[in-house]
């Protein structure tokens, strides 16, 4: 497990939650992997009571599974939860983009452009897939912030934990070139207020990647055991 730097004023329970969730979302803790309360307590240097509370919270978020009399495990990636996240994201991001075409702050447009520069800089570089994945998520978050829908984006992220783990696998397995090209289209559509191009782009970026996921689900895939 990868430890993170503790934030100023962060208590042990919040730190444990942030570290555990980050490790699950970045696949440092793999789907189906056993989680030991005692080992977590030692690694994070906090008592087992807050560890149990954190695990219960992650269970409510469908990120861990507690098997009575057996143990606690990182949840397998659930295809049904992926479909639910796609459904929500497809409709909400399409509407957010339409709003962005009508009005979008200059400072947020600059932030999008800087994010794109960072994406291009690390794309294709070995062992930086997780950094690219974080830039990808942040890119879309900026769009929602630009149209004053930050809480909507937080809701999307909350339901997208299984979807985003699959996205990371996809970004590790395939070239990031297509993702960057599509992000450039997002930027240009907002900049040029090209609302007529929104629906096709959302189809390409959110819906169409499903076609490539079958090879990840396939029995010959190294990731096949990650899925429910």
Report the sheet with the most strands, covering strand number, pairing sense and barrel closure.
3 strands, antiparallel
Report the strand count. Answer: 3
How many separate domains? 2
- Rg, rounded, reads 19 Å
What would the CATH topology of the largest domain be?
Four Helix Bundle (Hemerythrin (Met), subunit A)
Describe what this molecule looks like in 3D:
This protein has 228 residues and is mainly alpha-helical. It folds into two domains: 12-74, Arc Repressor Mutant, subunit A; 79-226, Four Helix Bundle (Hemerythrin (Met), subunit A) (Up-down Bundle). Helix content is 66%, strand content 4%. The protein is built from eleven helices and three strands; from the N terminus they run αβααββαααααααα. It has helices at 12-25, 37-44, 48-60, 79-102, 106-122, 129-146, 150-159, 161-173, 177-192, 198-207, 210-217; strands at 34-35, 64-67, 71-74. Strands 1-3-2 form a three-stranded antiparallel β-sheet. Helix 4 packs across helix 8. The radius of gyration is 19 Å and the shape is globular. The model has no long low-confidence stretch (mean pLDDT 94).
């Amino acid at each position: 497990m990868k430890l993170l730097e503790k934030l100023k004023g962060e208590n042990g329970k919040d730190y444990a939650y942030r570290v555990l969730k980050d490790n699950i979302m970045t696949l440092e803790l793999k789907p189906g992997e056993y989680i030991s309360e005692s080992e977590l307590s030692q690694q994070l240097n906090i008592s087992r009571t807050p560890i149990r509370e954190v695990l219960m919270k992650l269970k409510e978020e469908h990120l861990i599974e507690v098997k009575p009399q057996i143990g606690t495990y990182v949840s397998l990636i659930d295809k049904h939860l992926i479909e639910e996240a796609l459904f929500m994201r497809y409709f909400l991001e399409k509407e957010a983009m339409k709003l962005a075409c009508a009005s979008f702050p200059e400072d947020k447009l600059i932030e999008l452009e800087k994010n794109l520069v960072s994406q291009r800089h690390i794309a294709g570089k070995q062992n930086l897939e997780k950094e690219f994945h974080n830039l990808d998520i942040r890119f879309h978050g900026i769009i929602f912030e630009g149209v004053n829908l930050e809480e909507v984006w937080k809701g999307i992220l909350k339901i997208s934990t299984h979807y985003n783990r699959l996205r990371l696998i996809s970004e590790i397995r395939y070239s990031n070139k297509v993702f960057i090209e599509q992000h450039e289209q997002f930027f240009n559509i907002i900049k040029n207020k090209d609302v007529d191009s929104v629906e096709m782009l959302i189809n390409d970026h959110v819906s169409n990647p499903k076609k490539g996921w079958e090879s990840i689900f396939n029995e010959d895939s190294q990731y096949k055991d990650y899925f429910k």
